[in-house]
Amino acid sequence: MALPRSIRRTNPITLVLAAVLSFGFLVFLFAPSSNPGAVLNAKRKIANAAAHPLSPPTAPFVKPDASLNGLSKPPPVVHYHLNNVTTTADPVGNQETVLILTPLARFYQGYWNNLLALSYPHSLIALGFIIPKTKEGNAATVALQAAIATTQQGPEGKRFASVTILRQDFDPPISSQDESERHKKDNQKARRAAMSRARNSLLFTTLGPSTSWVLWLDADIIETPPTLIQDLAFHDKPVLVPNCFQRFTNEENKPDTRPYDYNSWQDSQVAADMARDMGPEEIIFEGYADIATYRTLMAMTADRSESRNQQAIIPLDGVGGTALLVKAEVHRDGAMFPPFPFYHLIETEGFAKMARRLGWGCFGLPNYFVYHYNE
């Protein structure tokens, strides 16, 4: 069929331009508003949404629904299948998330440097800290935030998946964090009860549905093998603690090491008899000369030779918390840090007793060392 004369005479370029202009008009007519206020409001909503994998969004971004007269839809229901969360001897290969938790009263740069040196993929590591509201705690918070800002704005491979900082909502029982004050026997019950409360607050706030492992790491642990997480997880134990030592200069002015943490032990009949005769509020504290428990202390069984078997493992009845790897399901089962006498034990040793009462085994690596800051 012949085209009308008017169309035959029309330049093809004119037709193309007309089509482009028509398309542009339709886009302008139906595109969402570019109102700066609307854009800012959307950004605020996104900023309010949780951006880390520890918990469901607390303020999820939802668009207004015209059918609800401009009101937002109800927040979504989030489903988690905890039976899909694995804890295996190959945590890197299985992409298992590790939550590193640290009660922090003082900030040591050595602690942070050691944390950065861990070879476990930082994208699978979430950090959690709890800090007391004291003068030292305030200074520690400032130093910690500066270190976090440098790391999280630095190379992507060094960044952690998330960082949570809590401030304690109760006062510490002792004002000084000096080692001599912390380890006085008279201060132990109140100090370790407060430490238990801090640990529990940190744990219950940060433990998320995707967490496979929880690594408790004290703020004054300044040296560990870079492969710490992989080395401990390799044993695939519910609760596992390495041996905590301290580097120092001995009387001959030579570098040396000495045991530091005496809270990892195998129980004795003497200690059991001692507990049986105690009142309900009394607690057995390990590492004091006037409390002879005759327990087998893991710190005293270490082989310090260069040829030692670092994978040697022993069962334990009590554990220390300087560096402690726990399967998240142990905590989900209810094992926490009792701030009260629990079978005459408290804090990490009470946690070991509670875990064992729940059917989980506790173990130690006597020849695998981490090192505590030497004041």
TrEMBL record:
<keyword id="KW-0735">Signal-anchor</keyword>
<keyword id="KW-1133">Transmembrane helix</keyword>
<dbReference type="Pfam" id="PF03452">
    <property type="entry name" value="Anp1"/>
</dbReference>
<dbReference type="GO" id="GO:0006487">
    <property type="term" value="P:protein N-linked glycosylation"/>
</dbReference>
<feature type="transmembrane region" description="Helical">
    <location>
        <begin position="12"/>
        <end position="31"/>
    </location>
</feature>
<feature type="region of interest" description="Disordered">
    <location>
        <begin position="171"/>
        <end position="192"/>
    </location>
</feature>
<protein>
    <submittedName>
        <fullName>Golgi mannosyltransferase complex subunit</fullName>
    </submittedName>
</protein>
<dbReference type="InterPro" id="IPR052086">
    <property type="entry name" value="Mannan_Polymerase_Subunit"/>
</dbReference>
<keyword id="KW-0472">Membrane</keyword>
<keyword id="KW-0812">Transmembrane</keyword>
<dbReference type="GO" id="GO:0000009">
    <property type="term" value="F:alpha-1,6-mannosyltransferase activity"/>
</dbReference>
<dbReference type="InterPro" id="IPR029044">
    <property type="entry name" value="Nucleotide-diphossugar_trans"/>
</dbReference>
<comment type="similarity">
    <text>Belongs to the ANP1/MMN9/VAN1 family.</text>
</comment>
<keyword id="KW-0333">Golgi apparatus</keyword>
<dbReference type="GO" id="GO:0000136">
    <property type="term" value="C:mannan polymerase complex"/>
</dbReference>
<dbReference type="GO" id="GO:0000032">
    <property type="term" value="P:cell wall mannoprotein biosynthetic process"/>
</dbReference>
<keyword id="KW-0328">Glycosyltransferase</keyword>
<keyword id="KW-0808">Transferase</keyword>
<feature type="compositionally biased region" description="Basic and acidic residues">
    <location>
        <begin position="179"/>
        <end position="189"/>
    </location>
</feature>
